[in-house]
Amino acid sequence: xxxxxxxxxxxxxxxxxxxxxxxxxxxxxxxxxxxxxxxxxxxxxxxxxxxxxxxxxxxxxxxxxxxxxxxxxxxxxxxxxxxxxxxxxxxxxxxxxxxxxxxxxxxxxxxxxxxxxxxxxxxxxxxxxxxxxxxxxxxxxxxxxxxxxxxxxxxxxxxxxxxxxxxxxxxxxxxxxxxxxxxxxxxxxxxxxxxxxxxxxxxxxxx
Length: 207
What we know:
alpha/beta
């Protein structure tokens, strides 16, 4: 390393080091990888595959509290507007399909406005309201999962659609947003508990 560090980075912080996900570089202050200050990665091809055969269905989970209700109402409104724009621009190739709210709560007034599947909420969310989401998806496919699209986009009620959206999958590789605070390599024992004891440290890092 340079005597004075790397630009604004402290001394010892400018070594190049392998990262499993270079597109989301680990910060220099991260205890699991303290020797990195950035990354050089080839931009991902996010063009996706064209054609209506890649049409997707939006699934959004929410409960019935007022905060999430107004969020999902705005979200649904703008999704439908962007879908209209998409279909006008490309009637045969638009990939925006249906929209379903998975409500893990009692039915509310929005069931008459937004396509909704009502499922059971967990008895104990342990103070973490989104804990009901995985079980809500499981119940959805058991109870309401008869949709015409072959692909789904799992969304949250604070996602706002400002332009038409394509299916961003490449081949059979799913598209996902890299949440920086979800760091599986920091919890290898927990990952192996649910994903398999056979996983190596390198495989966990590459998740």
